[in-house]
Structure formats: C-alpha cells, structure tokens
Amino acid sequence: MMLTLLISGPKQPGNDIDVYLEPLIDDLKSLWVGIRGVYDAHNGEYFTLRAALMWTINDFPAYGNLSGCVVKGYKACPICGDDTPSHRLKNGHKICYIGHRKWLPINHPYRRQRAAFNGKPEYGIPPEPLTEEEVLHMVENGDRVCWKKKSIFFDLEYWKYLPVRHALDVMHIEKNVCDSIIGTLLEIPGKNKDGIAARLDLLNMGVKTDLQPEYGERRTRLPPGPWNLSRAEKREVCNSFYGMKVPEGYSSNIKNLVSLQDSRLLGLKSHDCHTLMQQLLPVEIRSVLEKPARYATTRLCFFFNAICAKTVDVSKLDKLEEDVVVTLCLLEKYFPPSFFDIMVHLVVHLVREVRLCGPVYFRWMYPFERYMKVLKGYVQNRTRPEGCIAERYIAEEAVEFCTQHLSDVSTVGVPSSQKMGVSKPLSGCIVSVVDQDLLNQAHLYVLENTEEVLPYIEQHMIHIRTAYPKFRKRTKWLQDKHNSTFIQWLRFKVYVVE
C-alpha cells in the first residue's frame, strides 16, 4: 500500500499529521475486520478480504511525525530511547552520537582504550530496544521525555503487537552517511564535519591533542588529521571521478557532478550516493587516504553492500552485526566526533531490522520516490491536483489494458520498438574463413578462462621450466612456449594419462 497525501497549505503539518490520516485509519480498521463479497476471478467464488499494515516506510523526519517520537536532541534514536549514547559538543553546539563501544563484547580491547575514543574506558552494555508494550505505556501515561504524542496508528488494535512499526529508511541513511564522508574528505562547505570547532571539541575531550588548531598572525592552521586529503589527492580523486565511464543506466553521468575547479562533488542524488557507497568509493580512496581511515571507510561501504543485497543469509547476520559495530568504533577512532550525527548512529540498528523485516529492498524508498515523480507528472492543472492524478491514473490503466488486449496487433503510424530488431543482421552476410592459428587462439582463450583448467596451467608451466632449464628466467619465451604447446599437452594429459 502506498499513501499519497496532498495537504493544502504553505507548510507541512508536522506532528499534527494525524488529522489527515484518519480516513486511512478507518480503511485499515475495515480491512482488519474484513470486507465480505470480494470476488476471486481465478476460483470463481466470493471471499472475505482481510489485510493488516505491517510498518510504514518514510524518511527520518517523517518517522518522528508518524510515530510521535523525538528525532533530534539527546534522545533522538527511537530504538535506544532514553539510553541513546549522546554527547553535546561545546564548541560545535550540536549533539553527536558516539559510544558504540557499548555494543562490543565485554572483553573487547577497544573498551579499555581511552585516548583513541573519548578519553574514558567503556563498561556499559548496549541498550535494549523498546518493546511494543513499553512504548504504548510511555505514551499513554504521559512519560513523554522522548515522545511528543500518541500516534494515531495505535488506534489499530494490532499495532501495539508489532515489533517494527516504522521502518528505518536505508536509502536516506545511506545518502546522509555518503554526504558526510564525501563532504569531510573533500572539505565541501556545508557538508564538512571538520573545522576549528571540531578540533576544539577534541581538545576539550582530551583526545587527539596533536590535532588542535595552530593560531598564527594571519590565519589559523589545522594540522592534517587521518580523514584529511591533500590538495593533490583531492584533485586526483576528482579527476578519477571525472574520467569514469559506467554502463548505461548504472548511475547518472558522474562527470556532471564533479567540479574540477574547486575539487568537489556537487548535486549528488540518492542513487548516486548508493553507487558511490556500494562500489565506487572504496576504489577511489584506496591510494589517497591514510590506511586506518581508509580501512574504516571501506568496511562501512562493504557493510552497505552486504545489507542491500537481494538475498541475505540469516546465519551471517550476527557476524554482520558484530562487524558493523567494530566499523563504527573504527570510525570513532579516526574521524572527529562531529561526524557522528544521528544518521550514522542508526547504522548500528539496520541489521536488527533486516532480521525482523527481511531484505532492505522491500522497504526502502526508491520505488516510492520514483512513483512520486510519476504522480507529479500527472498534474497539469495545479488548482486541481487530486483530479488530475485520478483522471490520469484511470486513463493510463485503460490504455495498459488495451495494450495487453491488442498485444499481437502491429502498430500503424508508430515506429516499431528497437527491441523488435534484436538479433537481426544489420547488413548482408560476410563469409569469414577461420584458419587453424585463429582457432587455436580462441581455444586457448577459453581454456585459460575456465576455472577447472587453472591447476593444469600451473602444472604445464612447471613442466616447461623443468624441460628447458636454460630458459626458466625468460618469461616471454616461457609464455610463448606455453601458448603453442598447452593444447596438445592438455589433450594428452587428460585423455591418455588420466
């Protein structure tokens, strides 16, 4: 089910959105009781239709509006609740969410390290996620430290029994984390998590004191940290992105997102950040970033790649959860505290939701964002947007039905699809005679790219070096000899010897 609300007015309703959700709640109540007289065309009989809402899919600000919980401040995590690991940065004037060592095993060496983290050892335990009964008890009894209201969804009698009522959107989490990493590495204004305030906060915490600002007569110098790139390295990264070529439909044209003049990446969309975090970013930073920070960033990219897979091995989720906790601790060691906003903290809870809700691609916002764009294109009369969407939807549904009904009819006056000509020749045939040398090259290529033949290739190279000891150091001669004799040697080896 996808809900599209067209709310009039210059501003969104925010936490007062419940009044617009009342018609939806009434429909969901009716579906839970059951709608009789629904016809099953396949079996030719009537049945009672029942349905239940499992969870909502929305970005994090809408998460707070729909659930009624706080999504900023000291208790911004809706899963940790009152035990959210938060710390206020005095110079940055913001809340950071560090302290992921709580999720480590009790005997992990990171728990005893002080200077690498916040200057203190960690003996705490991870907070238990709030149960359904605890949440309902808190909002009903006025204990609203981290809750602003009782959500209207609790009017559904089954809502209080659901372990996950509002899903964390991996699309927006991945985008915000990617923006923070790219903005910090390339020092993009507005997205850079480093600065004088961040260095002073490190000094106040008593960690990484060698990175404190150095005040001069004309300017203040910031010593390079593990997360900083030199000007030449920034230029190298941007040039690599600028010259990158990807398959059609893989992503947007990355060349248009690169500003070589000031070494920045601008205008990154959600899917651009997705491709960067999944495959491109680990390749781009492998030779330009200090090894500890590069290792931590690459581990985070591998985590998103694993969690966004279409198939998830349930037996590996525990190991994946342990790995992401270590990854976040590594990021705490090599990145400033200001880097850890609430979106970075929510990464620690993603494996839990995969365990409860299944693969990510069933509940992220990519398909809904695309469909929102389709609905937006339906609106031609801005004074009547609802009518435009309804009429266009009905018309499109009728056209699709006619298209399926007349699928075998050839079109008149409309160019045929390009896919209709797939596998058809573009010109007359040309007869080509393949000689024995070319055939041997093709045969050798197939053999050398077959996994089962690789042990025989190694045996043949050892055989050549043994038979011709004078040429064992001449690599080119050995390779030529291997290419000319391997096919016959393999045929004799397989059919005669074995």
TrEMBL record:
<dbReference type="Pfam" id="PF13960">
    <property type="entry name" value="DUF4218"/>
</dbReference>
<feature type="domain" description="DUF4218">
    <location>
        <begin position="307"/>
        <end position="412"/>
    </location>
</feature>
<dbReference type="InterPro" id="IPR025452">
    <property type="entry name" value="DUF4218"/>
</dbReference>
<dbReference type="Pfam" id="PF02992">
    <property type="entry name" value="Transposase_21"/>
</dbReference>
<dbReference type="InterPro" id="IPR004242">
    <property type="entry name" value="Transposase_21"/>
</dbReference>
<protein>
    <recommendedName>
        <fullName>DUF4218 domain-containing protein</fullName>
    </recommendedName>
</protein>
